[in-house]
Amino acid sequence: MKLKGRIKVRAVLTTKTGLHIGGTKDTYEIGALDNPIIKIVRGDSPNRQEPYIPGSSLKGKIRSLIEESDKDGNFCTCGTCLICKMFGSGPEAKEAQKPRLKVRDAFLSDSNDEKLRQVDFVEIKTENRIDRKTGKAEHPREMERVLPGTKFDLEFIISLYDDDNAGEYLVLLMKGLKLLSHDYLGGCGTRGYGKIEISNIEISTLKASDYEGDAAFKLYKTYKEIGEIKADDIKNCVV
Hints:
- The chain is α+β, with helices and mostly antiparallel strands.
- The protein contains five helices and ten strands; from the N terminus they run E-E-E-H-H-E-E-H-E-E-E-H-E-E-H.
- The strands form three sheets. Strands 1, 4, 5, 8, 9 and 10 form a six-stranded antiparallel beta sheet that branches. It has a two-stranded antiparallel sheet with strand order 2-3. Strands 6-7 form a two-stranded antiparallel sheet.
């Protein structure tokens, strides 16, 4: 497979309701938080941790939604369809495919509100289980969530090989992002968590031959909201 070029998509993801992507507990002390979110150490202080969205969470959710739409919700293992070529095919596939799509970890955007920074972008939500017979609340638990209004910077890279059609892959990715904006990200989505909005989309292209020069992506199109993007507008994208 010979690389012929790449497409880069940048966007901003804004949480509209609390977001919970589970992390691990550093300690098991009495009174410790039950369900922490995943965080990463960034900056000069090792004691300061920030929430982020793993690329694996985004990629897995987007693939799942596309397969729900196009493959009746079944995990595709054919190894030949556009979905398998885009996201990769597992070891059980009849024909192995190198995934075209790379999804970067999404870190906090510099455009975030200062009020959110002052509380480290998180909140603790207490939940209970309701006994249906007695109506009493029981088994309280604490859920850590990223606050609504928090912005993350997204970046996707689509690598194109041989006879790959750039427009087909770009249309599929935009469809996945639209599906995500109407579903939820992370856990507890049926209880109101994980509603997101995707905006400020920037699409750029790069030819493989440009790596002999400045290797700079060239702007192709920009959109304010994900809903503005129509397949007919981008299906003729050429790299």
